[in-house]
Amino acid sequence: MKVSPAKENILKRVRNALSQPVQLPFPNAEGGNSVFETEHEGLEIKFAEEFSKLQGKFIFCSSRDELADNLQTLVENKEWTHVQCKTPPLQKMLEPYKPAYLNVGEEDRMDAAITDCEYLIARTGSIVLSAAQPSGRALPVFAPIHIVIAYTHQLVFDVKDGITKMKEKYSGQLPSMISFATGPSRTADIEKTLVVGVHGPKEVYVFLLDE
User: How far apart are CA 127 and CA 124, in angstroms?
Assistant: First the structure.
């Protein structure tokens, strides 16, 4: 293909510019400090406030006994008969309480699912999930109701803090999928009308266990 002299001159100038790196005009202006004020205390309160704004249901539990009682009350009030849980540590924690509703039916007919999480983001009320969890990718999305059991040490302030923690936890080999679930599934694609529970769970509960 024949290239005009004018075009060739432009391409030559572009190649020369790319071969000579240019120093940033403001090297200290990017990635230094967060634009949000970090809250070192009361992260559970901040998360509860933001999560509730998103129609999430937050339950603080001071002990495992209180957690089991609150779960049992929720299941009875909702008249659920099958709650799926694939996370061995959570199964082991609930086993002494003999929950009759746990893993008693087919997965495609479950009323709700219980999973753990990676971290909780206080500033946005988000739940960090990954493919490395025992529940995998599908369960938190497929379940009509998603119940998350988390611990206070999993609370971080901002998204940046959550990503940093993930890098530390997985030593640079991050899971193939990391998602930030912020409240129940929702969409407003049709006539800008908000509809909840279209592409995922219509309700999300977070049980935060105080350590």
Answer: 9
Give first-to-last CA distance, the chain, whole Å.
70
Sign, CA dihedral 111-107-151-31, equals negative
Place of tokens 């009682």: 69
The model's confidence at residue 40, banded by pLDDT at 50, 70 and 90, is low
CA distance 130 to 7: 48
Domain membership flag for residue 26: no
C-alpha–C-alpha distance, residues 86 and 133, integer Å: 9
The CATH number assigned to the domain holding 50 equals: 3.40.50.10420
Judge whether 87 and 147 are in contact, CB under 8 Å. no
The pTM (predicted TM-score) of the whole model is: 0.78
Question: In 3-state terms, what secondary structure has residue 38?
Answer: coil
Enumerate residues 6+ apart whose C-beta is below 8 A from 48. Answer: 58, 60, 208
Find the domain containing 163 and state its range: 41-209
CA distance 131 to 87: 13
| pLDDT at residue 57 in the model | 95
